[in-house]
Amino acid sequence: MIKPKPMPAEPVLVTGSAEKDVVILLSDMVGYSKRASNMSPNGIQSFMLAYHKTLKKIVHSVCGDDQNIHPSAGDGALAIFENRKGEDKSSVCNRALNTALAMVYAMDQELIPKTRIGLFSGTISEAKLDGKMMRFGAGFSVASRLEELCQYFGTSLLMGREVATLQTEHAEFLTNIGKITPKNITHPIHIFSIFEPGIHQCPKDVDKEQLLQFIKTKNEGVELFCGHRLRGIHPHFPSAKQKLQEAQELFFDISGSIDLATKRLLQYIDKNPSPDTEFNIVGMKIWDAESVTTEINLPSIAGELLKSANAELYHALIENTEWESKFKLIWRDKDTHVIKMHNTADGVYFIVKGRVSVQDKDGNHLDSLCEGDIFGELAYFTKKRIRTATVIAEADLVLRRISDKDLNDLPVIKKILKKIANNRMNPLQREVKNS
After folding, report:
1. Is the pTM here over 0.85, yes or no?
2. CATH of the domain at 32
């Protein structure tokens, strides 16, 4: 008789410890796949073993030999910082941040390849499966997203608000990056980084007072951008843009380069000049940080028709879109003058959001213009180039304005505006437009 083979034993799941608060460090090497593609298996093995051994030395140099960092998915690494005897949460956050910064400085010294690091404070639970410890908690996903967003914001290190606000040793260099909701995360995250001499494009010999002025200005700009409910600050993009531009200029004076994190916020304002209700709740939604700057615009049927009908216009409007950047964002409050009659023309305006009233010399209402309308072009096609009407904001306005110089540098756009002006003129105006 053939005896049946015994069934393999089921994996044994052993319940672990209770939930505990920790700080999670997740890191990932930049460009690993490209590096590994030209290596043999033995070469990859040697390279990665050296990398993880160096990470371990860095961690031990900061925290002692009892703090572990484990390889995670090949080129990734994971460290979990728990309360030690006599430590409070602030001490744990300081230890985790010091470890991350030691890794950043090791990159600068070329001891390790460039690596992205995410730090997040959260609650985890642990259990053993077949003798192997497993850890569970939403904080791992958040730390992973922060690590991924480092590339988008041009930093080597990003951390959540609790890690940032509870650290003390680097408080003066703490830099606000913004409030964002990344892909697969259901709530917004306030993220921060550290800008110290020698890292994040800051020269080692940077003037400390200049650096601190940049950080102060940038933090003020980010707060105006995101708002701060507890301080009664609501998002105000005009003020935020001004502060962030000041910060960008300060950073360029310091480093000779731009701060990509600041640039990202300015780009957002330029694309979304007025915060909507969703922004107040979730901040910046970043679903795919890898492809944000690599959008591909396929030609539409309308574009192809325009190309066939007027190649000059197609090239100016569709192929060469640099002209769009010449329309600069400006904001005006309700009841303020945008244009005053008889003044010299100073630009052409496009309404992004809001409504204006066009009035004659006696203040009589002539017309209302709203989102998508253009005004201010008529004066450019009269000899004296004088405003022919007064324009007043009927609601808070977001406008884009092109200046005299930029308009003169774009003859095709000027030709289009002339066509708009001719269509808007009544017969009497056409008779006297050259007077």
Report:
1. no
2. 3.30.70.1230
